[in-house]
TrEMBL record:
Keywords: Allosteric enzyme, ATP-binding, Deoxyribonucleotide synthesis, Disulfide bond, Nucleotide-binding, Oxidoreductase. It catalyses: a 2'-deoxyribonucleoside 5'-diphosphate + [thioredoxin]-disulfide + H2O = a ribonucleoside 5'-diphosphate + [thioredoxin]-dithiol. Coiled coil: none annotated. This is Ribonucleoside-diphosphate reductase. Pfam families: Ribonuc_red_lgC, Ribonuc_red_lgN, RNR_N. InterPro entries: NrdE_NrdA_C, RNR_1b_NrdE, RNR_lg_C, RNR_lsu_N, RNR_N, RNR_R1-su_N, Rrm1. GO terms for cellular component: ribonucleoside-diphosphate reductase complex. It is an enzyme of class 1 (oxidoreductase). It comes from Ligilactobacillus aviarius.
Amino acid sequence: MGIKDIDISNVTYYDLNNQINIPVNNKIPLEKDKEALQAFLKENVEPNTKRFSSLEERFKFLIENDYIEKEFVEKYDFEFIKKLYAYLEDQHFEFQSFMAAYKFFNQYALKTNDGNYYLETYEDKIAMNALYMANGDEDLAMQLADELIHQRYQPATPTFLNVGRKRRGEFVSCFLLQPTDDMNSIGRCINSALQLSKIGGGVGITLNNLRGAGAPIKGIENAASGVVPVMKLLEDSFSYSNQLGQRQGAGVVYLSVFHPDIIEFLATKRENADEKVRMKTLSLGVIVPDKFYELVQQDADMYLFEPYDVEKEYGVPFSYVDITKEYDNLVNNPKIHKKKIKARELEEEISKLQQESGYPYIVNIDTMNRANPVDGKIIMSNLCSEIAQIQRPSKINDLQEYEVLGSDISCNLGSTNIVNLMASPDFGKSVETMMRALTFVSDQGNAKVVPSIYEGNKLSHSVGLGAMGLHAFLAKNHIQYGSPESIEFTNVYFMLLNYWTLVASNKIAKERQETFFEFEKSAYADGSYFDKYVNQDWGPKSDRVKELFAGIFIPTKEDWAKLKENVMRDGLYNAYRMAVAPTGSISYVGNTTASLQPIIQKVEERQEGKIGKVYYPAAYLSTDTMPYYKSAYDLDMRKMIDVYAAAQEHVDQSISITLYFKSTIAEGLYPWKDGRTDKMTTRDLSIIRNYAWHKGIKSLYYVRTYTDDGSEAFSVNECESCSI
């Protein structure tokens, strides 16, 4: 008997969990979740966890049977490992919900090769992460164990899942690549996509530099096939390269709204697109310079420019030309072939597609570059739209060798749990510990199979510390999401994250006597990055928010001036420090809400494979907090954007933002709907995208629409009068 042999008709936890969704006397029976949790641990976990007589026996078994690497274990005296385990046991960790335990043991816990037994508890997983990322440093291992067991810090899933394992994928979440406009580069990019999909997470690729369909090749007119066939090759590559069948390969391709193939690019996601061109699994993103918003506002014509000609004229790939700045010159240059379309027609196409499919993602490229403190140009984003880092193009010869080795991007991510970090005995020390863990992951980057990725990681040491659980924190503290207090709290929280990640990166640079590549050309080196902090007080203003930060150090203008001095003198180790990714399953394990977004449902319904529906009550849901848990679908998206904009002010990279709409919009939610149809329209999407751009939002991820017929049969989510 083992996990695989469990007779689900004989266990009680699914039934108990499902009872959460059946109101009893107009109340959500939350106690059923705790009962389901206890039943799951008793009926599933306890009988199917492999037991060992001692810690030494456990590690010996795991090493000898090729479950874990022995090298990281050998960096420690075993007495210390025992001490670390004793500390973890003393914390008396408990899962807070059925879903937390279910997700952990299903997706994260190490299992025997036959899948029949669990080989680790939550404490074992924490110990593995702490020991591995501390790299032999006992003090750091203890600090990391403290952050992890109290769930103040959550490494990205690839890190949390894979560290220490003998047979594993990489620790990074995703990669970004850019081919240039020649067959060698395109071929190398497809090979790189295959290799990266095999070892890691999603792959982002910009096809912006490729000439459009019908462009000349070696003087022959109408010879180029454009970007769509390359998209098809990439989609097939990701389907083929899927980490030994463990997960579907995933990729996103980006294209500028000024690329001549933009209409055909968007059409690949239409439900009625021809099978030859339809992209079933490949995600789409569009790169939007400020000039596009201006042309839409003016209801003007817009020109799409041939990248081949632009590169010939400017001497750099199309992605590196500032379209907003050069637009009139491009229009007036007779050597550059161009197409003319109506800006608002393209805007309408984007909105229609978002309404139909949720795509494309939006990258406000000029906003990204204006805020970019590092010398160079950001040209794209990643699979979840939160990465904003510079890249340098490579040049590949006919022997498939790098004549010029450029730099591409790997994403080393982790997340703070807002509720728990706000309760940290030392906010700054917690963040420094997280930065050291993330920096270790970056330093370990060994994707040598793609030299441009390896080079970029080696030069930048970039990481991305983010946050999850914003709505949980606000609800727990009786603050409405989108209220002035919620915006003020978000602003101060991310200012603190920014401050302490800078302190940590500066400390690491000083210790190692090393900075990121071309630090001296950055806005950090000349001090200009710090001007807004030195010239303005960013601390809490309202009594309510001051109360939330009581006992937590808030840097003054003088503290920022001192930090500025330190950074200008000793540098920073990490070119990029912060990025807010979407968080999925790991949010359940951390008993919190996903990323910075509002919840979707008070009791979330998930479809779990063959098992069916599983229910998850929002973290800290109670009679007291229920009024503060309004669904994202019932929220004015401008209020959500205001919250994200407060965070974006301090985040050097970007934030993944999903937009939520109901297909029938509630009366009074949006003033421009008054006297018009209550149905969601393309105009609504356009207004919200423009609002986001005006608020300084760098990127937008999916658009999710809740359709009128998408609701399920009666459940507690539809019973707004329910109390607990």
